Amino acid sequence: MYSTTVLTDFVAQHYLTVPDPGPEGVPHSHHFEVELTFCGPELNEYDYLVDIDDAEAALASLADRYRDTLLNDLPEFEGYNPSVERFARVIFERVTAAVTDETVTELAVTVWEDDAAAATYDVSV
């Protein structure tokens, strides 16, 4: 199995909307780091699993969308608690729509909200 990983980072804000969230219930910032790991059993005709330029363009678009925003105000979080787990799912959905290499059979999105806490959403595509 091959895998290719690309990374980006940005600062965004959120607040949790669950009962009794403590200090996480008020708007605060995180320096988010996003890792996209594409996996597949074969390479394409150019010996790539995924076109890294396409993957990096998808990441740049993500960073532009979320940088310096309050996640709670965005339509993709409407009705949801903007947890790091939910954020990983939202990013997965955006990336799978943008990167369509047929050699990719699995995508894992890991979102780090600090040096010690991350969540991953991983699905076959």
Automatic annotation (TrEMBL):
Source superkingdom: Archaea
SUPFAM superfamilies: Tetrahydrobiopterin biosynthesis enzymes-like
Cofactor: Zn(2+)
Keywords for the protein's UniProt record, in alphabetical order: Lyase, Metal-binding, Zinc
Pfam families given in the database record: PTPS
Entry keyword Zinc: yes
MF-aspect GO terms: lyase activity; metal ion binding
PANTHER family: 6-PYRUVOYL TETRAHYDROBIOPTERIN SYNTHASE, PYRUVOYL TETRAHYDROBIOPTERIN SYNTHASE
Listed name of the protein: 6-carboxytetrahydropterin synthase
